[in-house]
Amino acid sequence: MAQRALVVGATGIVGQNLARRLVAEGWTVYGLSRRTMPEGSGIIPVQADALDASGLAQALRSLTPTHVFFCTWTRCATEHENCVANAAMLRNVFEALPNPGALQHAALVTGLKHYLGPFEAYAKGVVPETPFREDMPRLSVENFYYAQEDVLYEAAQKHAFTWSVHRPHTVVGYAIGNVMNIASTLAVYATLCRETGRPFVFPGSAVQWHGLTDLTDARQLAAQLVWAATSASGENQAFNVVNGDVVRWKWLWPRLAAWFGLEAAPYPDQAEPLEPKLAQDIGVWADIAARHVLREPDLNRLASAWHTDADLGRPIECVTDMTKSRLAGFTAYQDSTVSFLDVFERLRAEQFIP
Question: PRISE-like Rossmann-fold domain: which residues (predicted)?
Fold first, then answer.
């Protein structure tokens, strides 16, 4: 039977990489997004807002996917509003499908905030000791990941399809205009440092600089999503997903610097967040873009400093356990340094950085 995927959030960092992998493997892929899909991708575009139930139903009226991959979210002012809105988006997708009983599997991408807590209480209070494992209990705070999971479980029971939940760490991958993109944010920051002669200072906490951490390549996440959606051992399970290696930022930072022809600056013994720095560099970036004839003069379309600050500013060490999916049969591995360098190479090749 032909496999037909509906990728929700197909222009995002996760959805874009997943959709391209599915196309390469011969799936029919419908890419749902609020923005238009790039031409020539092999993805069938479906333009709609998942928060607009009636518009979504109209957009999906003729689709009967065998698989749904939910790879998007919306950010609201409070976590309670996040819970309401993000649960509604997922629920709207299932309710908008004309024949949800045709679904074989639905996959939901969440993340380590499952263990660390939402942005309002991020890595504060009592958090589980690392490594994070899938059987750790939910935190006693509102969290839109929990709300989304509950919608998924309810729909799976109602329509008799299997499900999987995927919890990546910081996702490293290629996407333009994404609200959570550490690779393009650091590429912009490094370019600014090189072009202005400023020191390339690690902006995060001392714990992150010295401690162990891991990362998730968007391609690694895509591989696990496809595996879980097509493997009996991936059914009805939640899985952590990281690259498989562990790094210290004090080891990785000089390697990223070298790609840009920079020396890594000594750590200043305290966090120096990127958001206030980059807020003052909007005009500087526009000048750099004009001088090098870059495709995107708007710094905010490439950099998501607030999210990079949240990731790099954590006061705790973050290491994620992958035993569960490895024992279940998912054994893919990705070098985290290469994850960044591959994105940098593509950004340069497509004229987003000089």
Answer: 65-354
* Contact of 132 with 95, CB cutoff 8 Å: no
The radius of gyration of the chain from alpha carbons, rounded to an integer in Å, stands at 20
Q: Give pLDDT tens digits for 270-313.
A: 999 999 999 999 999 999 999 999 999 999 999 999 999 999 99
Dist. CA 106–CA 309, nearest whole Å: 32
Same domain for 71 and 192, yes or no, is no
Q: Is residue 262, in this structure, part of any structural domain at all?
A: yes
Q: Which residue has 């600056």 as its token pair?
A: 265
CATH number for the domain spanning 146: value is: 3.40.50.720
Catalytic positions = 113, 145
Burial class from Cβ neighbours inside 10 Å (0-12, 13-18, 19+) for residue 15 reads buried
Q: Is the pTM of this model over 0.90?
A: yes
Of 112, 134, 168, the position where a domain reaches its end is 168
Nearest to 56 by CA among 7, 97, 106: 97
In a domain, 74, yes or no: yes
Residue where a domain stops, chosen among 168, 202, 229? 168
Please report the pLDDT score of residue 253 as a whole number.
98
pLDDT, tens digit, 9 for 90 and up, residues 172-203: 999 998 878 999 999 999 999 999 999 999 99
pLDDT at 36: 75
Look up the domain containing 299 and give its range: 178-213+246-317+334-350
Query: 203 and 341: one domain?
Result: yes
Number of domains in the chain: 2
Give dist(CA 318, CA 116) in Å, integer.
Answer: 9
Same domain for 162 and 97: yes
Claim to verify: residue 96 and residue 204 sit in the same structural domain: no
- Tell whether the model's pLDDT for residue 236 goes beyond 90: yes
